[in-house]
Specification:
It is built from eight helices and seven strands. Helix 1 (25-39) packs parallel to helix 8. It is globular. It has a single domain (2-203), classed as Rossmann fold (3-Layer(aba) Sandwich). By secondary structure, it is an alpha/beta fold. Residues 1-182 form the Flavodoxin-like fold domain. InterPro entries: Flavodoxin_fold, Flavoprotein-like_sf, NAD(P)H_dehydrogenase_qn.
Length: 205
């Protein structure tokens, strides 16, 4: 199975080690997921948005191309090719201001092009998903907000935007959210235990 990981953190995927001021728990979680996927025999393709210098802003040229079912940015075209080759998508990022960072949102805006990745045959009708290989999407996230507050007080905006408002609308049904809250407030042993749990979970995938 081919798993495409779309990673979004300013420190990049290289920041998975426990080095003060150079570490990212998002990167550590992604590394754990990769170990699990490798154990399960998956092929892993990694898109590191910050390392790639991805521009999340939809330009006028992008929008004009989007309306005519075309792509003008070769990086976006490459990302689309890799999305089409994926059996599973994993988005890894921190939750800031209760939502996804800009580069992840820009990936959804610019890469999931109407007429290429999906079609909208008629207004008000279900979209047609062209990602024939895609079996599921996972969001792997970290945030400082307790998860029960995020769900009950804020209404889980991330899952509404990414799952209900994007992939479920496209017809993707296997949607999974894996989140770790407040890793900075835990002991090293607790963080290691969480990472081991993530690795084991992806090894069962």
């Amino acid at each position: 199975m081919n798993t495409l990981i779309v990673f979004d953190h300013p420190y990049t995927r290289t920041a998975s080690e426990n080095v003060p001021h150079q570490r990212s728990f998002t990167a550590a979680m992604t590394a754990a997921a990769e170990r699990g996927l490798e154990r399960a025999g998956h092929h892993i393709d990694l898109i590191d948005l910050h390392a790639d210098g991805f521009n999340p802003v939809m330009s006028a040229d992008d929008l004009a191309a989007w309306r005519t079912k075309k792509v003008v940015d070769p990086q976006v075209a490459d990302y689309q090719r890799r999305v089409f080759a994926a059996d599973r998508l994993v988005f890894a990022f921190p939750i800031w201001w209760e939502s996804m960072p800009a580069l992840t949102k820009g990936f959804l805006d610019r890469v999931l092009t109407k007429g290429i990745v999906y079609s909208e045959p008629k207004k008000g009708r279900p979209f047609v998903n062209h990602l024939d290989r895609l079996q599921g999407v996972t969001a792997l996230t970290v945030m400082s907000t307790p998860q029960w507050i995020y769900r009950t007080v804020f209404g889980s905006p991330l899952t509404k935007m990414m799952f209900r408002g994007t992939f479920r609308k496209m017809g993707v049904k296997n949607l999974t959210w894996i989140n770790e809250s407040d890793p900075a407030g835990r002991t090293l042993e607790q963080r290691r235990a969480s990472l081991a749990g993530i690795e084991a979970r992806f090894a069962r995938a």
